Give the backbone structure.
Amino acid sequence: MNDNHSSYFDHKIISLVKFVEHYRIAIIFGYFVLTVLSIFYIKDNLGVSTDTTDMLSEDLAWRKLDIEYEKEFPQFTDNLLIVIESDTPDQSTDTAIKLHSALKNNPLLISDIYYPNQLPYFRQSAFLFLDTIELQDLADQLATIQPFLGTLLADKNLRGLFAMLSDAIEFKQDGEEIDLKPLLLEINRAFEDEKYNVSWQRLMSTDKESKSIYREFIVLRTLESDKEFLPGEDVIRHVSATINSLDLDNDRVKIRITGGTALSYEELKSVSNANIQAIFISFILVALILLIGLGSVWLVTASIITLFFGLIATTAFAALTVGELNLISVAFAVLYIGLGIDFTIHLALRYREQAISTDKDTNALQLAISLIFRSLILCAITTAIGFYSFIPTDYQGVAELGWIAGSGMFISILFTLSLLPALLSLKPYQPRNNSYNNTQNTLLITLSTLPYKYSKQILLFTLIILIGFMTQLHKVNFDVNTLNLQDPENESVQTYRDLIKDSDTSPWSSILLKQNRNDVIAAIPELEQLDLVDEVIWFEDLLPADQDEKLFIIDEMNLFMGVLSTEESHDINNENRINTLKKLKSQLDTFSDPELNAETDKLNTNISTLLNNNPDETRLLALEKRMLSNLDGRIHALNEALNAESVELNDIPLEVRERWISPKHFKIEIIPKEDLNDNEAMKRFVTQLQSYDQSVIGSPIINIEAGGAVITAFKTAFSYALIAIALLLIFLVKHKVDAVIILVSVLVGAVFTFGFMLIFNIPLNFANIIGLPLLLGIGVDSGIHISDRFRQEQGSNKNIFMTSSSRGVIVSSLTTICSIGNLAFSSHTGTASMGLLLTLGLASMMISTMMILPAFLIWQNSLKKTAL
């Protein structure tokens, strides 16, 4: 009955091939028209989304918390963070003010611009935010320098500066207490470094601890344009153009752009470039390998045409059913090239083999398809299962890839069994004399006999390696840091990492929402007791404490400081500047103070060097700029701070208030103490916070929870794929023991893959983990071809390794490795890791399929013969 069913099935297949051969022109033309129409449809209907938050199910508890937070505080979504950095606080502040003024009037690209340091509330209350002791120290310091500062403000140029310094030196010589060392250090540095401007803010501050870098932050909430292929591109270009037009990014100040919008833009740009490059290289490599493997230009041409038409059809299917790709699903094209070509390779090689081994009266194409049809269909199903297994999981970003690529396998098999035969029938393959036998060289024959001679030894050696790898599998780890997926050379990534290193600037804080003020008051001291928490901030921290005492000190400061002049400086000529320098030098020649000698001697030397070179006006004006360019901004800030008044919570600006209080919740921000670039530090921080309150949210929690969700999704997908493929094999494979052998060999290949990951130190991550269920499907495909051909040749004494099936597995594995493996050279780390893992996995599966699986089959067959 089975034989009758098989004959009937073969007859139907041959009838189908005859139909394709008869209507080949119409079929080819139809596919051509479909491809052209698909290209136009793709152009108008396929987009790309950079939103990584939608890649996991909204039903997850932490996703619900994150969605609620974004709804209540939308100011923190679609943000561009501009980071202004300098080695002085003056330069950072002045540059930020200029940039803020230039950017604030562009409603087409920017919906909101937030720079709190420029708000009158914070500028006027600056002194109120100091500790009382710190404010008193500042008042004492300003009282001491006020007479000297007045001299400078009356004559804001080199003459006034060095006249002030001269007066201060005389004051010091008279035995009065004044600390000149900070001023001398600043002036000497400006003399010696043409890129450095004197920091008057640091000189006026009571905090003498110098930082290596001072930062200011401007936050832009961006508006997306439907015309942008890369979301955020227009606003980033606008910001960059504004910075360049004002010449703000220079030797003294560095301006960098980061934040969610910039990270998404640069990541999508990296991923897009990587995939476009990978697709182009894949086609070239596949064509070269096919030319070597198939040995016929026409077979290669027909295969590439089939592959290309199928890829376009799959892309159109994605546009129709999904509409918008994500950062993971964009990889479907490279995966399709690497896997879709497998079907054409096996069919083309089987057709070539039949054309060589049969007489001219036999239709080699019909015979080849009838022999390989079942295997191809089964392989398409198992590969699709590998992709589809992610659909029921919470990892929706990969579920989308699974849907597109899995469906693409059915599109590929359809094109392989219709378009490819139609193309091949246009020009039937004409074998060259002895072309098949010539490929069977002595070395290949020797290698091919090894599994037949040493099947037991191969299996024993495999068992030893397998046990060794399995004892180490617990060391395979998952990298939860999403920044590690991106191109490390991207400015946004480098900037973000730098900010995370510093707890004062880390954007990776955590958030806790409370419904009323009393809950906040109760939670803050408890959070502050946690040893991994550096600081806890909430809305009322923006209201200065001890205002009455501080305002009294500020009133005293006003009495002796008065209103500081901000008028333009007097014009002086070059002779005035040189005479001032000479006068100061003469004074320094006679000045001696053990605490200051090092700096005064250095200043004396710097002045002498300058005067000996006969400086022109341009050089002295440049020196004057380095000395005094930061002064006016500090005087303006000082005048505003001296006008401080008592403030209440209601005085805090609405744009600030809305960032801390929503209609439903108060926001508490929790700053980590450790550098969260370290995954272990991140896990410790999140574990401690969640042990305190499960409703905490923020980037660290999202990373850890997303990692857990992805691992769960992988386990689920792998289980689904394994069960579905196992059932499919058991029902459809004629020899049931072969189903077990195929599955065992594939699982061995999977363990080998993990072993190689440990050897090459490749962690799992959000991108490459999708390859593992996929490898299961690919490994089963190769196993089906080998086992099916082994049974077909059983009794004929034909070496399985000398058949087109083995050659097909090798060629298809190489094409898949080259097409998918070239992703390993991508600048996008996540894409590169996926390419590397799949390359190692495919190599492992090829070893398992070409060595371990045949050894199993040969050993099992020998046991059967022994039993008989």
